[in-house]
Amino acid sequence: MSEGRPLRLLALHGYRQSERRFRQRTGALRKALRGRAELVAIDAPHLVPGAEDETNDDPPRGWWFSRPGTFEASEAADEPAGLEESLQAVAAALRERGPIDGLLGFSQGAALAAMVCAMSARGDPRFPVTFAVLVAAFASRSPAHRHFYRQPIALPSLHVVGDADAVIAAHLSAELARCFVEPVVVTHPGGHFVPVAAPQKEAYLDFLGRFSPGQGQTEQPGGGLG
Questions:
Q1: Domain 7-213: which topology?
Q2: Quick one: which of 115, 137, 138 has its CA closest to 127?
Q3: What residues are annotated to the active site?
Q4: Is the overall model pTM greater than 0.85, yes or no?
């Protein structure tokens, strides 16, 4: 592993997005992180049904469904479907597209990233990540997913919360942040997007500055990880 490389973040897009669409919508973020971190985006494994009017070469995708063929973050789904395939896709990407240092997730992709963090923190060897940046994230309401949140998630995390987010309300993101040990939370006045204004850019760079490529967590002043 070469010295001096930027951090590499596995990027997980939102529901009804795709790897290509997420790359298009995060150009400003990639520019802001240039030299410090690069994004490695992947497609969710599931096509969203009923999107025949969408461009055929880049159909919308999802990481799991709360009901057959659809998804609502606020729904306490009795029989969610598709999560295991998505966890397998993330594990494969970490294995095949490495080195990967951390995760960056947006909306449903951020919720998935939080689940991966929980499994990593508990020693699952499929998910060797050491931190996560979670934008517009939430905890799954499904009873089948409660096990991800039963114990504090001991992995460094940055949570980016939109005060005016009408898709994932701010209190849902704050609720997920409380599932982590010593989370870093930054808010912005906007809605459902990845913000890159000066305060958020500073927050990204400050958080990522705690980590070294391929070396896991870096020690913070006073001996803690923050």
A1: Rossmann fold (3.40.50)
A2: 115
A3: 107, 165, 192
A4: yes
